[in-house]
Amino acid sequence: MVRKLIGACVGLAMMGMAGTANAVPMTIDFDGLAGGVSVTNQFAGVTFSNAVTLSDLSSSPPISIISISSAFTPKSVDPIIVTFSTAAAMVSVLVNDLGENGVRIDAYDAAVGGNLIDFDSLFGVSSGVGNNNQLISVASLNIFRVELYQPLSLSGDGITFDDFTFDIPEPSTLALFATGLALLAFLGWRRRGSVQVKAA
């Protein structure tokens, strides 16, 4: 009985350690790019679609991104799309000039198509000019794509995006979690086997 309890504690501890052994989040601030540059695959493991850099009018840098097809007003039919070569666990982005049209981030479990697995949205008031550094984020274990857009079209207010942050779990984290889960499953299977033998 004591061995089973120790085994269960070790399995749970391994699963718990896996939850805290994540990689350090990576942030893309776009400041290394010039204004007017199409953002595609300049960053390792991440590909942007429908995104172009914009120099901040008040100072240079910072650089932020806007939509190629609709400038400051990306909509759900033409969002800024970001895909990951390896599944991300968390994605966040800063939004500038957030107004009444709002902003939304959708997370999917596939690079194309797939299922919506998380989303976040925020809304400002009026044109939103000066309503900067508003954070939106999503979290799930299997994010392969996010889409950024304005969900409403109440006025002509627009938004820009900056400081794109994502966290991709290390393979060792997933292995540690799987090992702990396998140990618990084995202990449960062994326990059921010993109960059946005693009953016979």
What does this molecule look like?
α1 packs antiparallel against α2 (171-199). It is elongated and about 65 Å long. The chain folds into two domains: 1-21 and 170-200; 23-169, Sandwich (Jelly Rolls). The strands form two sheets. Strands 1, 3, 6, 7, 8, 9 and 10 form a seven-stranded antiparallel β-sheet that branches. A three-stranded antiparallel β-sheet has the order 2-4-5, with no helix packed on it. Helices cover 24% and strands 36% of the residues. β7 and β8 (116-122) form a beta hairpin. It contains two helices and ten strands. The mean pLDDT is 82. It has helices at residues 2-20, 171-199; strands at 26-28, 38-39, 46-49, 51-55, 63-67, 80-96, 103-108, 116-122, 134-149, 160-167. It is an alpha+beta fold and 200 residues long.
Largest sheet: 7 strands, antiparallel
| Average of per-residue pLDDT values | 82
Name the overall outline.
elongated
User: Distance between the terminal alpha carbons, to the nearest Å?
Assistant: 21 Å
Structural classification: alpha+beta
